[in-house]
Design brief:
The chain is mostly beta strands. The chain is 7% helix and 28% strand. The strands form nine sheets. Strands 3-9-8-5 form a four-stranded mixed sheet. A three-stranded antiparallel sheet has the order 4-7-6, with no helix packed on it. A three-stranded antiparallel sheet has the order 10-11-12, with no helix packed on it. The longest helix has 9 residues. The chain is globular. The two termini are 39 Å apart.
Length: 438
């Protein structure tokens, strides 16, 4: 039986990426307990106890609507509002099976960063500490550095919520005006966005995967971005130790309580395994959520991993005559109706990548199974937000969600994959203002 392995108890690990046929390692920050405690000393509360503080979120709807991914420029000072952490736990106490006290010492910690020096932890602090509706984690990114990090808010040493910090000079939302966007490529600060209208809607796509340092097809792994287990808010940087793996489906670790959702929030740096290939969300087959990323509601949810104003693309809901979800190509957000033959292959063998003048470049990233990235012959892969729903019972977990491959039949080919797999995400613009929170 495997023991729980927490990244915060590891001093330094490698990030495993597969590039062409060669495996190489990038090193990134792994904070141990002593380092986390050192970071929390810089939060401005000087170790004071605030168990008597009454923290009430004045506007939970506004707090819940804030994004889990913060885009920042190199060298920029960033403030991350923390009210969402309290609003989420207050709203989901019964679901999580655990209640955090609204009191307790607040801390801000760096869970991991690539590169190591991306965030200056000595300057990281919590501002407006006494007012939870104004409180924020303030930090500064390193000038000239691009990369990704996960920043967490702790209450009495326990992680309450975490945010993905994407440090990039790409700013796809700056001065974005829908009326001025043409079909295909459009220039924005630091790159491009792609607009395409089909049966999935009128969508604006980023030109790179979520977390990628570049959209330049010559930049190799810099174009890959982060990996996500389906429905989880936190990224995995291409490598993460598995947590508990049961030897039988009857063994449920007590740390999970009834579902893994609370556990995934408390330990955002772990790949949550499943038995044998079910949903990471729970070892109980009747505990699941098809709408974690809004694939059922069509709205941006509190777990959506994309930046403000962007969301994971979803496959429009359509049921066939026999009651199954329709996986026809025409419903794909990436389906090119015209002109035809637009996805062009780049490379050969196991490292085939694809590019389209109307939808952009898609690197060969494969998908992640715990501690390694696996690739198949068609390996440009992305998640959609949409689950596969059973015709017998829409509330039945089928353990799979729609997973897409670029390039087949000149557009993205749909197939199903188990939700514990970790794959990349390509965010789209929320064109419909009603797509807020469910």
């Amino acid at each position: 039986m495997m023991k729980l392995r927490h990244l915060r108890n590891t001093l330094l690990l490698g990030v495993l990426f597969l590039l062409t046929a060669v495996a190489c390692k990038d090193e990134f920050l792994r904070e141990d307990v002593a380092e986390l405690e050192k970071q929390e000393e810089n939060n401005g509360n000087e170790g004071s106890s605030d168990n008597d503080y009454i923290r009430v979120v004045a506007d939970p709807e506004v707090a819940l609507a804030t994004a889990n991914c913060i885009m920042a420029m190199p060298g920029e000072t960033v403030s991350i509002p923390v009210a969402k952490a309290f609003a989420v736990w207050e709203q989901n106490q019964q679901l999580f099976g655990k209640k955090f006290s609204p009191g307790g010492d607040l801390g801000a910690v760096l869970i991991w960063a690539i590169p190591n020096e991306l965030v200056d932890t000595e300057l990281m602090e919590i501002t407006d500490y006494e007012d939870i509706n104004k409180a924020a984690i303030r930090l500064k990114t390193k000038p000239g550095a691009k990369g990704n990090a996960v920043i967490a808010l702790t209450v009495n040493g326990e992680v309450r919520w975490s945010w993905h910090l994407w440090v990039t000079d790409y700013d796809p939302g700056a001065d974005l005006q829908l009326s001025n966007l043409q079909t295909g490529s459009n220039s924005v600060a630091g790159g491009n966005v792609y607009r395409y209208k089909n049966n999935a809607g009128d969508n604006i796509f980023m030109d790179r995967n979520l977390g990628a340092n570049s959209a330049d097809k010559t930049k190799g792994k810099e174009t890959h971005g982060m990996y996500y287990q389906w429905g989880k808010k936190d990224p995995l940087p291409g490598f993460a130790p598995k947590n508990y793996y049961p030897e039988s489906p009857l063994e449920f670790p007590p740390q999970y309580r009834k579902n893994n959702l609370a556990y995934s929030i408390e330990f955002p740096d772990e790949y949550i395994d499943a038995f044998p290939s079910g949903d990471w969300y729970s070892y109980y087959d009747k505990v699941f959520d098809h709408d974690l990323w809004g694939g059922v509601s069509g709205k941006k949810t509190i777990y959506d991993p994309c930046p403000e104003g962007w969301m994971v693309p979803f496959w429009p809901s359509k049921i066939t005559e026999n009651g199954w979800s329709d996986l026809s190509y025409e419903l794909s957000p990436w389906y090119i109706r015209e002109p035809e033959n637009q996805f062009l292959s780049i490379g050969s063998n196991v490292d085939i990548e694809f590019e389209s003048p109307v939808l952009g470049f898609y690197p060969a990233t494969g998908h992640m199974l715990g501690e390694e990235v696996s690739k198949y012959s068609v390996n440009t892969s992305l998640w959609t937000a949409s689950p596969m729903i059973s015709p017998d019972s829409p509330n039945k977990l089928l353990e799979e969600s729609i997973f897409i491959n670029v390039g087949l039949n000149n557009h993205l080919h749909a197939r199903l994959e188990a939700r514990p797999y970790a794959a990349n995400v390509r965010c789209v613009r929320c064109l419909d203002e009603s797509k807020n929170l469910k």
